[in-house]
Each structure stands twice: as C-alpha cells, then as structure tokens.
Amino acid sequence: MSNIELFTEDKLEYSFFPNSSGCVQFRIKAPHDAHIALSPEAAEVDPMYEIFIGGWGNSKSIIRKNRTKPDVAETPTPNILSADEFRGFWIRWSNGTITVGREGDVTPFLSWSDRENVRIEYIGICTGWGATGNWIVQPATSGPGGACGAQCWVAASSGEVPPSGFAGGEDNGESAYVIRANFNGALLPGKLVPSHRQAYVPWGGAENPVTEYEVLCDFPGQWLANSGSDIPPNAVPGGQSEDGEALYIGRTVHDGCLTIGKVQPSHGVLYIPYGGQELAFPDYEILCS
Fold first, then answer.
1. CA distance 17 to 141
2. What is the value of pTM for the model shown?
3. Cα separations (Å) of 274 from 56, 81, 169, 202, 265?
4. Residue 2 burial (CB count, 10 A)
5. Where are the domains of the chain?
6. For the segment 155-209, what is each residue's pLDDT rounded down to a tens digit?
7. Which fold does the domain 4-148 belong to in CATH?
C-alpha cells in the first residue's frame, strides 16, 4: 500500500482514515498545531482522543479526551514542528494506553492511560489556529516491521546471534547482521560479524568495536536504492545521534563486502564501519518497512 500524502487547511476539520492496527507513523510539515484524532468512528464522537503536537504556538503537546478540558496529559515541546521541513512522529495505542514519540526515538515524549480502553478504528488529521500542513501518513500495518517502527530488537553480546536475527550484509563469505548499540551518547546502527565475537558501529571517523548490542530480529523489510539526504517515508529508524537526530539503517558494497552502517540525513551519506575506519558513501541502500 502507498503512503497517504495530504494537505490540510487551516480549518480544524479532521480527515479520517481506517486504522485499527494500534499505531500510526507520519511526517508533518507545519509551523504548529498538528492535530490527530483517535476515534471508533470516521467522525468526531464520544469517546474519542485527540493529540495536539506543537500547539500553543509550537510550545507544548497534549492528549485530550472527548474534546474536553482540562487536558489529560501535556508536556513542553518547544519548536517540535517546522514550517520548512518534515518532522516524523509515531502514536501507539494499546489497552487504553496512548504513547506519542518522535521518529527514531524509542521513548515517548507524551503518554496517558485510560481505564475506559476505547477501541480505535480510525485516525483523523487536521491543522488549525493559523496553520496549514503537509502530511505523509504510512498505511496501517501491524506486527514486526510494520508502522511505528515496531521492530524487534533483541539484546546480545560477544558475537551472539538471537534466533531470527536479520542478516543484511556479508563479510568475506560470512553473514553480517543488522545491529544497534549505544556508543558515546548515541544509539548507532551497525554490523555484527559473529566470528569476530563483537559488533561494529561507525562514529568519529573510526570503526568502533562493541561487545554488547541489539540485533534486529523477525523483520520482513526490504532494501531500496537511495542517495543523499532524501529519506523514504517508510525507512526504518535505527537509532539517533548524540544530538538527537534520527539515524537509519543502510548498506553498500565496499571492497567486495556488503557492509551495514548508519544513514545520517543531515550529512547526506551512509557511514559504514570497515577496516578500522568510518567510510562515507552518498549512494547506498536503505532498509524500509
């Protein structure tokens, strides 16, 4: 299924789409006030939830139930939206708990649990209060590798490969696996070569060995040819830089090896750990759901 691309006017009128998957992932370019409704019907009804991202002049985000104040949850989010670039987000709902996070972040910045446990069948999007918006909404999917970055990452160490580890590369005839690891304040995608008894991540111009890491498992994704900083909407977030920038999972052939590394959009390249170095490539394959 294709992504839904939509322009919303300054009208505070929701456009609804079916989605009972438990999550939605989207990108939005708007100066403020990106509004998302979670509803049992394709209309504004009671009960219903609303999430306002970048409300009140792009200063805070909230969760509201039944269009009624006071809001059930809120948090300061200064400048979370941009009128000049797309910003990515995910929303999950399960057993009455709603969580909202930035694309590439594992931890939500907004959450709330409701005892009523409303069954969500539709999502709605709109902008208002002086804002218009351009949206890219992923189609509703579920399970590992579906929307919202619902990948399965399994902790391992010292060359271990969990069952159903996702092999995305090759190193001198040996399968290399997609991993991520914490390193110098960042969460970095990289490669695991089991016979080396360690994984590697690219950072600071070097190929950095790590003995503890997480392996991507049970993932039915696909690799797409890509270049530069134009990231596909369904690209899989694999971590974040020490500055909070979302990083993606990429690979390229170098010196006869298919090597996995990190795609850093602000740099417009894929970085791979290889031969003790961090090497940059403007053309690469990127992992997508």
1. 13
2. 0.55
3. 47, 36, 13, 8, 20
4. 8
5. 4-148, 151-288
6. 899 999 988 889 999 999 999 999 999 999 899 999 999 999 999 999 999 999 9
7. Jelly Rolls (2.60.120)
